[in-house]
Amino acid sequence: xxxxxxxxxxxxxxxxxxxxxxxxxxxxxxxxxxxxxxxxxxxxxxxxxxxxxxxxxxxxxxxxxxxxxxxxxxxxxxxxxxxxxxxxxxxxxxxxxxxxxxxxxxxxxxxxxxxxxxxxxxxxxxxxxxxxxxxxxxxxxxxxxxxxxxxxxxxxxxxxxxxxxxxxxxxxxxxxxxxxxxxxxxxxxxxxxxxxxxxxxxxxxxxxxxxxxxxxxxxxxxxxxxxxxxxxxxxxxxxxxxxxxxxxxxxxxxxxxxxxxxxxxxxxxxxxxxxxxxxxxxxxxxxxxxxxxxxxxxxxxxxxxxxxxxxxxxxxxxxxxxxxxxxxxxxxxxxxxxxxxx
Length: 342
What we know:
Blueprint: E1 6-7, E2 15-17, E3 21-25, E4 29-34, E5 37-40, E6 43-47, H1 51-66, E7 74-79, E8 82-86, E9 89-90, E10 93-101, H2 109-114, E11 119-120, E12 123-124, E13 133-140, E14 143-144, H3 155-160, H4 166-189, E15 192-203, E16 209-212, E17 221-225, H5 229-234, H6 245-254, H7 268-286, E18 314-318, H8 323-327, E19 334-338, E20 340-341
Antiparallel strand pairs: 1-20, 2-3, 3-4, 4-8, 5-6, 7-8, 9-15, 10-13, 10-14, 10-15, 11-12, 15-16, 15-17, 18-19
Helix pairs in contact: 1-7
């Protein structure tokens, strides 16, 4: 299967490479290209066909479902893998919302509860709760966004350390809880539980909050299957969920993913299964059949993903319906540009 590993579109501006997205900075706007990169262990471990398209289109769909609650970054989605976004100053606080007592990371609510913590945001939990139990109400449990390591601080600590003002914190909490409530309602209608998620916000010139980055994707959110949840929890079983752990475990069993300079190739059957799961989540959330984006050969319009290339492909791009042509304002000229690594 074909994958989009990397992009090289020099005339779009300086590029920043994220875990999944290539971000082109155009001063007042960003060109966000969602690739098929899959990261774990603080590195790229595989490339999952169609993952970038799933994430980009799911975010675009959720931004549309929540735009009456809060403004968002989206200017246009000119390609299945591309979002053109207005650029805002980022708020250095990640708005984490948790609806259930679960998780395995150091900052997860279950890990901290197991260690004796009982107060999370403005919610105090009783003793004796079990893992994966529903909370009495969703809790706003933000973390800092820092280069070194995100921290789970109390609201007063975040305000005291200058991450956010008290007024902006209160508004972020109000909006994040409203978005999460909308997400849970829609998810339940699709047979899913939106368990927890994270949001990122920017501020406009007037200090107003704007939703940025991504929203309610399988990478930023935890989903469980609704129909089997009660029965499985009653049996002390883990809820049925969107599972990416099987690929992580394969690497842990076949190498040291933290120390080895070169990782082995992920087995094709595991990569294909991961791709299938991303597509399945898309179809269950949106309720429509997933349609893969065009993957034309060199010389055609659209994102070119020919097989057998390990270096940037050079394609001739003609303005018009092609998104690269649109972004470069190439209405009448033909131009050769480095496009993608496949």
